[in-house]
Design brief:
heterotrimer; A mainly beta; B mainly beta; C mainly beta; A: OB fold (Dihydrolipoamide Acetyltransferase, E2P); B: OB fold (Dihydrolipoamide Acetyltransferase, E2P); about 10% helix
Chain lengths: ~90, ~90, ~100
């Protein structure tokens, strides 16, 4: 999982079947000094994360695991971060 | 699998239910020879009791993590700490 | 997933059976940088069942997750268009709206 921040959202009326109600948000991956790393990406969300939330997201095939029946999802928010301790 | 240094812990109340029994640790992948950081820090599930400053073996495959957490295949976690690496012999 | 812009189509007569009747598009990754929607570094070919047109912004799923789309079950693809984007908001600002 990577640390990230929810920085926005997308609207899309035309979607593949099964994705009609799936919330898709815009994420900025962060390091643990909360500096931006990598590039922005889109992720599904199973936690109800709000705009500005610090989250953990998973990528790859595993990101589709929470969805039954399976959905074509390759990034998903899986936890909302309350707090963390980090010593570089 | 890769070797990483444990750098901290994450607390998350709201998370996928399959992660309920796991500790969430911040792991910095390192070069196994030089121990220099390699790439960005990530978060891995732990049931072995790893602590900050330890070198650990991390698997990046959801099936392995599901077995480790005794979770079903709805579990989305990809990184899991599979071993605590012994300190170098003195 | 990534934001991508459709920049072309790919036509092939000889192909794996799973690709028969499937549309292929050329898509350029885009990212949000300093509050703007800008081209990223990757260009890729993706399957499209939603009729994405030239210049449209779409949501692309990559890797083995792409085959989780019901219509891709028998297609050995690793990238698929899952939605056509109407609007993107970042940091409270509108950064894209379909015209």
């Amino acid at each position: 999982m990577y640390l990230g921040k929810v920085i926005g959202r997308i609207e899309a009326r035309v979607r593949l079947p099964g994705l009609e109600t799936q919330r898709i948000v815009l994420l900025q991956p962060l390091d643990f000094n909360q500096q931006p790393i990598r590039w922005t990406l889109l992720a599904a969300d199973v936690t109800g994360a709000a705009d500005g939330s610090l989250v953990l997201f998973e990528e790859g095939r595993e990101a589709a695991n929470p969805f039954d029946p399976p959905l074509p999802i390759d990034a998903c928010i899986v936890a909302i971060v309350d707090d963390y301790q980090y010593q570089a | 699998m890769f070797i990483a240094m444990v750098k901290g812990t994450v607390t998350a109340t709201r998370k996928h239910p399959s992660m309920a029994g796991a500790r969430l640790l911040i792991v910095q992948p390192i070069d196994p020879i030089s121990s220099q950081p390699s790439g960005f820090p990530q978060v891995a599930a732990d049931v072995l009791g790893a602590a900050a400053g330890m070198r650990v073996l991390v698997v990046s495959d959801g099936r392995g993590v599901q077995d480790m957490l005794k979770a079903d295949n709805r579990c989305p976690v990809r990184l899991g700490i599979m071993a605590l690496i012994d300190p170098p012999a003195v | 997933m990534i934001i991508a812009k459709i920049v072309g189509t790919v036509v092939a007569t000889v192909k794996d059976a799973g690709f028969e009747g499937k549309k292929l598009v050329l898509a350029q990754a885009h990212v949000i940088k300093d509050g703007q929607l800008v081209p990223g570094q990757t260009m890729l070919v993706a399957n499209d069942d939603l009729g994405a047109g030239q210049g449209e912004f779409v949501v692309l799923t990559q890797g083995s997750s792409a085959r989780m789309a019901p219509s891709m079950k028998n297609t050995s693809t690793d990238a698929v268009v899952i939605a056509l984007i109407d609007r993107i908001d970042a940091s409270g600002q509108l950064v894209f709206k379909r015209s």
